[in-house]
Amino acid sequence: MLPIYIALGVVALIILSAILIYNGLVSKRQTVNEAFSGIDIQLKLRRELVPNLVETVKGYAAHEKSTLDAVISARNAATAASTQGPAAMGAAEGVLGGTLGRLFALAESYPDLKANTNFLQLQTELSSIEDKVAASRRFYNSAVNDFNTAVEQFPASIIAGATGFTKREMFDVGESERASLNVAPSVKF
Q1: Where are the alpha helices (DSSP H) in 61-116?
Q2: Residue 22: its pLDDT value, please?
Q3: What sign has the CA pseudo-torsion 154, 159, 162, 167?
Q4: 87, 100, 153, 188: most buried, per Cβ within 10 A?
């Protein structure tokens, strides 16, 4: 009779462990989803701010059409990429960040624009959003790292595979965009 109780105890322990592992994976997946939502909100705010910024600059630098068009084009591409997952979003947002850098470099050449209150307010707001995007990206990538580690570790990998948990993508701007972000934009007249 004792071996039956021991066997039942082992089975119960295995079932309890499986339940705990599964619930841990669900919790980590929800954290990843919440973190991605945080990035998405900040990126939407940034994309909504860009047209206002461009309109402000247009009044002072109307002959800089190519830079302004590049910013709007990058903003539209980032908006379109928002439904294509973290990798596509990261790449598109990297391009947008690069074009915004060129826009601010352009503003350096226009003292009246640099002194414009609306432009300064928009620039401050964008800077604040950029900081929040960076913090959200770090939180998301940390949550993805925890989730991916949990999905790959034994014995969770068995439960993850059996219940459909798969690794998630990190939010990354991409190698080429990261390199372009480190290069100072050039402005020519």
Answers
A1: 65-81, 86-107, 111-115
A2: 96
A3: negative
A4: 100
- pLDDT tens across 111-123, in order? 777 667 777 888 8
DSSP label at residue 109? T
Q: Can you give the pLDDT at residue 28?
A: 97
Phi, psi for residue 169 in degrees, rounded to 5: -85, 145
Spatial CA neighbour of 130 closest among 64, 31, 70, 50: 50
Would you state the torsion angle of the CA atoms of residues 49, 74, 35, 152, taken in this order, to the nearest 10 degrees? -170
Which residues, including other chains, have CB under 8 Å from residue 112's CB and lie 6 or more apart? 60
The helix (run of H) or strand (run of E) holding residue 10 is helix 2-60
Residue with tokens 């459909």: 164
Q: Which amino acid is at 125?
A: E
Whether 99 contacts 181, CB under 8 Å? no
Q: How far apart are CA 165 and CA 109, in angstroms?
A: 52
* Angle made by CA atoms 170, 137, 140, in degrees to the nearest 5: 60
Contact in structure between 25 and 156 (CB atoms under 8 Å): yes
Considering the entire predicted model, what is its pTM? Answer: 0.73
Residue 28: half-sphere exposure toward Cβ, Cα within 13 Å: 24
Mean pLDDT estimate for the chain: 84
Long-range contacts of 117-120 (CB under 8 A, 24+ apart): 118/56, 119/53, 119/56, 119/57
Amino acid at 144: V
